[in-house]
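Figure S4 source data
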Amino acid sequence: MPLRARHISFSRRSFDSFLQANYIISAFLGFIFLDFIISRDDAVYDELKKPEAEKVALPLDEDLPGMGQYYCLHCDRYFANITVRDDHFKTKKHKKRLKIMAGPAPHTQLDADLAAGMGMPDNGPKLMSM
């Protein structure tokens, strides 16, 4: 008698719930990664590279904590008062963010296009003009 592979059947409902759970987990982890590492890095990096003379004072905003006056540029967060902000400066999250911002500039779309071979073409020097 020949051996046959057993057919394992899954109900459609359990498979859909499995896919949904995996999507939720990956979306959550992706959100954490994007929120901490990638999001707003280019804007923050540009703001950090500005000279002191070009930086403007923060306007008063009633909707933000601390009227928008206690701000961490590296983490892009507002704080209720100066002591909370100073405590934030001592945290591991802030120090990690400082290390990231001190490194090279974040990648741009032009960098990605050039790496993929879709950027500006380099046809070399013109050999003959006609």
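Figure S5 source data
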Amino acid sequence: MTTSRKKDSAPAKLANGEYVAKPRDATYLKAALNGHASIWPAAKMVIADDIATFFKDGVEVWNCNAAYASHHFDNTPMRSTVMKRSAQ
């Protein structure tokens, strides 16, 4: 038996800046199984030169490339990032 999965559309490219990242994993256990436990339930994420670096309480906890972060996390720009974009 085969199952068909709807292909995800290409994730949006993340611009350099600061974001609040929330794993798309529904539970902590799923996040842990996918290697996202250190990000659960949310973390500050800084994008610089296509690298996503995650922080909890000011301490770097993980990093990955920006495309992976865009695909696996719900990312909300922090106020400072939104203000920088609107000024451009």
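The chain is about 25% helix and 35% strand. The radius of gyration is 14 Å.
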